[in-house]
Protein 1
Amino acid sequence: MDEVIISRAITESFMKDFLDSLNIDVAIAGAGPSGLVAAYYLAKKGLKVSVFERHLKVGGGMPGGGMMFNRIVVQEEGKSIMKEFGIGLKKYRKGLYVADSLETIGAMCARCIREGVKIFNLITVEDVVIREDDRISGVVLNWSAVGWSKLHVDPLAAKSKVVIDATGHDAEIARIVEKKIGAKLFTEDGKVKGERSMWAEVGEKALLENTKEIYPGLITCGMVANAVFGSPRMGAIFGGMLLSGKKAAQIAEKKCKA
Ligand code: 48F
């Protein structure tokens, strides 16, 4: 057992995936439920997709369930996507199901990776790459530890045809585009409106409508969609997140193939 061989195996295997991710079809910021679902459907269609997640763990808001009770609730509309991932659902009442949030994360992650999605944890998307007409053309990446320790280290970049913002409540990529490019997003006033207080039913309905291209090459996904368009949050109900991920994938696929 040679420690150097173990070290080489890890480094070479990781670097192969990282190099493969520098020129891709779709870059996804955030490995929460919506980002993972989007990645899965894109990979299933044969597109090259990589997900960059800031934290050590993937799953975004899922491990904490509702107030640290590690369960999530999914309504009828999200059932078929949960089934596609092979996740167990317990019927709670008509049209409403409960899932173990840890099983959900494990299953989503495994299915994504088996479909060919490259998932990188501990990497933050800190900016976007732009080209003519300020079109979004990729993501700017750095180790999350660099930001946390406030080190002055320049990032690296990956090019993609489309970027999906699945960063959750803070809508980080949309805000970067608004601030740094001074861009008018495709919202009423051209800005990120910020999410509104909790109203599960309205929030869930709005989520699908708000999942769209908000700037050339940038697509909202999951909670980002409601944060960008000023719609309510919805708490630990996840059907909308799954459907939003699927819709973001469909929009991104069309753009990649256009
Ligand atoms: O927050 P998150 O789970 O987003 P989501 O997919 O799902 C929302 C639900 O979890 C919940 C909810 C349910 O109704 O409202 O909140 O919309 O996952 C977002 C992920 O993005 C990562 C973050 O660590 C989290 O895992 N993230 C955020 N900013 C960045 C990032 C960034 N700049 N670069 C990389 N990852």
Protein 2
Amino acid sequence: MTPPSENARLPVIQLDQVVLREIHLPLREPFRISSGSVLHRRILLLELQDRSGAIGWSECVAPERPNYSPETIDTAWLMLRDWVLPLALGTRIEDPARVHTLFEGPVRGHPMAKAAVEMGIWELAARQAGISLSRLLGGTRDRVDVGISLGIQESPEALIERAQTALARGYRKIKLKVGPGEDYEYVAGVRDALGPDAPLMVDANSAYTLADADGLARLDELDLMMIEQPLDRTDLVRHARLQARLRTPICLDESIDCVDRAEDMLELGSGRIVNVKPGRVGGFAPALAIHDLCERAGIPVWCGGMLESGIGRAHNVALASLGNFQLPGDLSPSDRYWKRDIVEPEWTMDAEGRVQVPLDRPGMGVEVDRARIEELMVREEVVR
Ligand code: OSB
Ligand code: MG
């Protein structure tokens, strides 16, 4: 397939410097998944400067703790400064779709660190070309369906209340985080309260093993859209065995960290849906390749989230505007996460559960509130 970037005339990019900044952004409420909880998001932002003076922004989605994948904000900072950025700085970049190949051989792993640079270059290229990031990526939608991801709560009642509020607010998909002992009762309670048509799913973040297959098969009764990442991140074979036992589609998140893993999933039957997070797979180009592969195979994808600020959200919204993002993304509006976001305008959702893709603005389509970043910043380093 023709890389989408070939459809636009792009100026050559040559990065002079990249500023790494860490900001602390408190969530409105703690977000708990099976492997841990977060209340204060430590966020790594990249400001990329081209030799022309043009600027691009990106966000590294690595969390504080290595409980989702091995990466953390601190490993990403180190990898960016010492290994990834030196490969990009000063290099003539004619096509953002090829940037990820610079990093592949010399740096094994660390997809979130790599993705932050790759995605920032796409953003910069779109701005330079005067077109939206969505258009540069090959997006076809002007609005995107939104889902919400609800953390594990103290009780089924507390979860039911949040799920009811989310449904009334217009969300098109309601994802419930689950784990052993905090699953069937919670999800059945929500199903009962919301009715048979509510678009419900669960996400286990690898909390189960095949020994839990009977319990997971019970979830079939609850007519879920999908069960996200029930088993270990590295385990495609057992996901295939589990999928063979379930009526409910398995969606893989953590397991799909590159295009080849998506191909393996298709071949093995490890799942029927893919959650695409550009940070998890090393950037937009691998994310687009997974999107295309799944489209050819008749597998729907949707855009996941990592509790991004308005910058990472902008990148996700642009990606989710592509055709095979058939299911609602974890792209909640700014005020679901933060008292105040770091971009202008903030991200909003309409009453039908949709977010507008800012097609008429160059680049990611929102402006960074530098004063706010200054206020929230705890660390800064310029890499040249
Ligand atoms: O597994 O999708 C996940 C947040 C942090 C780490 C992992 C996940 C999540 C979410 C949040 O589900 C989705 C969002 O950003 O709203
Ligand atoms: Mg997930």
